[in-house]
Amino acid sequence: MGRQDSDEAYVLDLCDEVLAERGERQHRFDWLVGDPSPSGRRARLPVDSYWPGHGLVVEYREIQHDRPVTFFDKPDRLTVSGVHRGAQRALYDARREALIPANGLELLVIRPADLAADSRGRLLRVREADLAVLRRLLATAEHRLTTDEDRVVAVFRRWLISRGWTAVLPTDHHTDIEAVRDGRRIVGEAKGRTKEPGVDADIAYGQLLRRMTDTSETTRYALVVPTSGLRAARRVPVAVRHVLRIDVYEVTDTDGVRPVAD
Predict the structure, then answer these.
(1) CATH for the stretch 148-259
(2) What are 197-215's pLDDT values in tens digits?
(3) Do residues 191 and 209 touch, judged by C-beta distance below 8 A?
């Protein structure tokens, strides 16, 4: 069975359907790498699928990820990690679980037991039942937002995608969101509802200034704030924002997005 016919492909295709976005299969992040080989090279580790528009990574873990399976583990053969493949798999799974959330992305791990499967972990592919489960799991993952800033970023990202932008891995990993469309680029900093909206806005403007490494007119910078932070964001004069190519966006309490036209 090829990868395109595997249970993993079946699950990820259903996730595409639920999320209404085609995930990037076997995506590799620069910050997620394996152990060094004898030559010192560290290969980037793939994730099963990544949906930039949702800030979401899904890993489909078959039974060999949770129990010893000689065929997959190769216990008589050591890897660059100095352990057999089964132990290395567990090591790398733990690395994904630590680094993916640390880099601002949501990680959802799906196992055969979550879906209709037989005793060997093979999926029965009961499509409608599996879709219902995945809708619930994905909804839970997407709403696992810990701060209002998380909400603002997620809403703004969805708004950009709905207008034809493609969310990309930020050039600077501290950036909240970066997106491209037709040769143009948006670099955004977001703030949520806090007791100090004025201080937050000043910090966000400073963060945007540090991101201004691209002098091209095709790159614009976005300050994204909740309604409660809009007045503070507007304190910087329009003429200054125009020169710096900074646009202000309001994210409402009902999760709408309004470009601010001064």
Answers:
(1) 3.40.1350.10
(2) 999 999 999 999 999 988 8
(3) no
